[in-house]
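QA checklist item 7 of 12: single-chain prediction sanity check.
[x] sequence parsed
[x] length recorded as 283
[x] structure emitted
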Amino acid sequence: MDHHFEDWVGREETCSDRILPSSARALAATLDLERSPCAGEPLPPGWHWMFFNPVIRRSGLGSDGHPARGGFLPPIELPRRMWAGGRIRYAADLPVGTDATRRSRILKVEHKAGKRGSLWFVTVEHSTACDGSDAPCIVEEQDIVYREATAPGAAPAPPPARHDAEAQWSQVFTPDTTLLFRYSALTFNGHRIHYDQAYARNEEGYPDLVVHGPLTATLLQLFAAEHGPRHRRMTRFDFRGVTPLFVDRPFRLEGRETDKGGLAVWARGPDGELAMSGTAAFA
């Protein structure tokens, strides 16, 4: 590890937000759900990602639409960054309408050499509590990866292998531009790969607009909750992004029970590739 980045390990920040019923209604509408949770009801798994997001002036954004390097996260200068996965523990309900506080801490910063260049991984722990309590409702670790840009003329990455796991349940989902726009707005996510087609294609080398990783993870958690044990609350969700999903290309949410009473869930892309995998536990 560069000594320059050692100073960021252990760095902390705290922010507060209100779990607004209006935001819950907006996400329910965005996901085309029949009802949204009312004030006092638990916020569904994954919906907490609408809150505590940094509000940065437009002049403080980088060319990719993310906040400029530095601040709480280390100033890693590799141009491409994404949220690669995470591990979430739901210790208690986070009620809609409550005041909440999130304490964040950088756990580690690691450098690795990948097949297509240099990679940096930053792991951040977020602990969310509500109504002035010190006992967290949600504790999660987020893995953020920084990578090099693809060099002009470089050979394309090999196509991802098909994912042929047997599913007990399967559901087709088609992401459109309105969905991506609304989710970007609700999470205050300025990353241009989700709404600027020319940027996504010409600057970051994607074939089209990219579906947000947290959006896919939220859909998988809703899918797991729908097929999980009745009257039991999700207590943990771990997930890992494998390959991107793109706008207007239908993909499948799939899952099956595990030997330990939980669920294995995954998103399978239009060509059968594994886009995201996850596991859900209930209590």
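[x] summary fact logged: The radius of gyration is 19 Å.
[ ] second reviewer sign-off
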